[in-house]
């Protein structure tokens, strides 16, 4: 019996112990908590043993052609000497370097650079790959009006300089996240990435009858803006139009029109406008009183593009035919075979259409003679490009020859000029420049136009721009710029370092260049809103030497999570 009692006591003790453990009481609860803490500690220790990058940057070398850039990284649980790098240039899917350095190339300018880095442990176990994207924040483009310039930078900010009344002072304006800038006669318009619009510059025209302020318009979701200098028309994402500015003959100015694909300008200074609609129809509004009416052009469909001259429009239809609309001889194409057309050129009172068979049809009237001139003896076949200045035409043919006709003072007479082996033609209001395959240049046109270039080295021209102040600037293939013409309008660029230039832009009486280094140089003269070049009291130096363009490299994005 004693032995039996002992067994029952042992059983009871065992049951009590199980009950206490199940309730979490006693020392059993304490043991459970300790196990949980041990699990957290183990997780933390595991995290600290992961091979990973803690930082990834570029050294202080600037993203300029010829500079060697170096990637710098730090990592944990790694062998830094085993970290692998790859460099990618925007637009290229293959790495340009697989070391920690890369020499920046001229072709890389204005492109983003991506650097990827993968850390490795001493045992060769790879950690996560991280990527940074860097870019050079510098001026990407410049537009100018008669009194100021505005420069758009890589990061979407804008820098302006010149006369304050013309937009040279943009203080107080939110010019960030800008996608494009458009220059008016004495103002600027910036379209931001969110589709909103910022305007600045001359608002004195608000006192003029017919002026509509931008503040009274719904300028949201804008995708593009066209301007004739004094007025503006915005095309919105929903394909509707909104106009503002100095709108004289037609207060409506296209505002409220829907289903618009594009807007083109015509009339002197663009005082007439045409909207090509998504269904191929065309709506016109005219502040110059040359078009027969304002409104929808009857029985015109299938239009895909168009151009304007001083008094008329020419519309290209999807079937390759052309329809003209407008005033007098400038738009009269009756009796002409305008089928099979691929492109149209509009200049002053003239049009020229290039056809798929390589022939050219021209119509309108040259400014001085009032006629189209006699081109009956000219072989207008095998044409590849058409150039014109409103007073003459120059035709580049597939064999590299050039033929011309029109008013002799403006390049219509090229007799005595060796216009063979021509690669390109650059047009000007007073003549032409033919760039030959060997880099030499032939100039013809008015006598003063030609004489001005006698002492200028025009070999290897890339482009030429002339301004209304009587000056020219030519960019050469080696990146240098030469100038000539009216000195105060930019014809005299002495003292300016015009080498390693990427692009040249003009205003009414000045020029600006963007260099491959990101530097900006401008020279010539700015004018106030009366634009009188003879009134020196209204002019100012267009020099940009005191402007801070804030060039620097910056981080665009990073995947790194330290």
What does this structure look like?
- The protein is mostly beta strands.
- It has a domain at 52-136: Immunoglobulin-like (Sandwich), CATH 2.60.40.
- It is 9% helix and 41% strand.
- The chain has a 4-stranded antiparallel sheet, with no helix packed on it. A 4-stranded antiparallel sheet has the order 13-16-15-14, with no helix packed on it. A 4-stranded antiparallel sheet has the order 17-18-19-20, with no helix packed on it.
- The radius of gyration is 35 Å and the shape is globular.
- It starts with a helix and ends with a strand.
Concise account of the structure shown:
By secondary structure, the protein is mainly beta.
Which key terms come to mind for this protein?
disordered N terminus, 9% helix, mainly beta, four-stranded antiparallel β-sheet, 3 helices, 40 strands
Give the uncertain stretches in residue-range form. Answer: 1-46, 204-209, 533-538
Which CATH architecture of the domain at 52-136 is right? Sandwich
In which range does the helix fraction lie?
under 10%
Q: For the largest sheet, list the strands in their spatial order.
A: 3-5-6-40
List the helices and strands and how they pair.
Elements: H1 2-22, H2 26-47, E1 52-58, E2 68-76, E3 84-89, E4 101-103, E5 113-118, E6 130-137, E7 139-144, E8 148-153, E9 158-162, E10 178-183, E11 187-192, E12 197-201, E13 211-212, E14 222-227, E15 231-236, E16 241-246, E17 260-266, E18 272-277, E19 282-286, E20 295-296, E21 303-308, E22 312-317, E23 322-326, E24 341-347, E25 350-355, E26 360-364, E27 383-388, E28 392-397, E29 402-406, E30 422-428, E31 431-436, E32 441-445, H3 447-451, E33 461-466, E34 471-476, E35 481-485, E36 501-506, E37 510-515, E38 520-527, E39 539-541, E40 552-558
Antiparallel strand pairs: 1-2, 2-4, 3-5, 5-6, 6-40, 7-8, 8-9, 10-11, 11-12, 13-16, 14-15, 15-16, 17-18, 18-19, 19-20, 21-22, 22-23, 24-25, 25-26, 27-28, 28-29, 30-31, 31-32, 33-34, 34-35, 36-37, 37-38, 38-39
């Amino acid at each position: 019996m004693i032995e039996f009692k002992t067994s029952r006591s042992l059983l009871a003790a065992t049951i009590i112990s199980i009950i206490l453990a199940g309730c979490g009481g006693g020392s059993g609860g304490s043991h459970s908590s300790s196990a949980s803490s041990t699990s957290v500690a183990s997780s933390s220790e595991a995290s600290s043993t992961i091979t990973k990058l803690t930082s990834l940057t570029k050294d202080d070398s600037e993203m300029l052609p010829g500079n060697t850039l170096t990637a710098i990284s730090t990592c944990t649980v790694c062998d830094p000497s085993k970290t692998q790098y790859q460099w990618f240039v925007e637009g290229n899917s293959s790495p340009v370097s697989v070391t920690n350095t890369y020499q920046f190339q001229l072709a890389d300018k204005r492109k983003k650079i991506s650097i990827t880095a993968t850390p490795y442990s001493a045992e060769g176990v790879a950690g996560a790959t991280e990527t940074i994207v860097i870019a050079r924040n510098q001026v990407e483009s410049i537009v100018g009006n008669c009194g100021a310039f505005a420069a758009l930078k890589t990061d979407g900010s804008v820098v302006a300089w010149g006369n304050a009344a013309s937009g040279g002072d943009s203080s107080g304006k939110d010019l960030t996240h800008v996608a494009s800038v458009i220059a008016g006669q004495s103002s600027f318009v910036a379209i931001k990435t969110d589709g909103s619009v910022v305007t600045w510059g001359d608002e004195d025209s608000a006192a003029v009858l017919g002026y509509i302020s931008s503040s009274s318009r719904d300028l949201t979701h804008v995708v593009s803006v066209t301007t004739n200098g004094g007025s503006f028309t915005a095309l919105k994402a929903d394909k509707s139009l909104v106009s503002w500015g100095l709108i004289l003959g037609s207060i409506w100015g296209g505002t409220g029109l829907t289903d618009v694909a594009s807007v083109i300008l015509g009339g002197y200074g663009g005082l007439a406008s045409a909207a090509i609609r998504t269904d191929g129809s065309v709506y016109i509004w005219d502040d110059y009183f040359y078009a027969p009416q304002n409104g929808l052009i009857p029985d015109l469909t299938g239009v895909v593009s168009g151009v304007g001259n001083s008094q008329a429009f020419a519309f290209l239809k999807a079937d390759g035919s052309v329809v003209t609309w407008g005033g007098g001889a400038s738009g009269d194409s009756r009796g002409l075979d305008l089928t099979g057309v691929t492109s149209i050129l509009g200049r002053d009172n003239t049009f020229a259409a290039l056809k798929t068979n390589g022939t050219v049809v021209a119509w309108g009237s040259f400014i001085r003679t009032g006629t189209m001139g006699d081109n009956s003896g000219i072989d207008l076949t095998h044409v590849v490009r058409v150039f014109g200045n409103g007073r003459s035409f120059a035709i580049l043919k597939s064999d590299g020859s050039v033929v011309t006709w029109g008013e002799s003072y403006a390049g219509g007479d090229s007799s005595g000029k060796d216009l063979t082996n021509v690669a390109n033609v650059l047009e000007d209001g007073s003549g032409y420049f033919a760039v030959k395959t060997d880099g030499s240049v032939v100039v013809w046109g008015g006598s003063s136009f030609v004489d001005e270039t006698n002492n200028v080295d025009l070999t290897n021209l890339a482009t030429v721009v002339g301004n209304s102040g009587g000056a020219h600037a030519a960019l050469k293939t080696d990146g240098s710029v030469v100038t000539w013409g009216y000195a105060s309008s930019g014809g005299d660029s002495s003292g300016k370092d015009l080498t390693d230039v990427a692009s040249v832009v003009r205003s009414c009486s000045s020029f600006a260049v963007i260099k491959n280094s990101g530097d900006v140089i401008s020279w010539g003269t700015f004018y106030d809103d009366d634009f009188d070049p003879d009134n020196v009291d209204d002019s100012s130096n267009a020099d940009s030497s005191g402007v801070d363009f804030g060039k620097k490299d910056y981080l665009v994005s990073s995947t790194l999570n330290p």
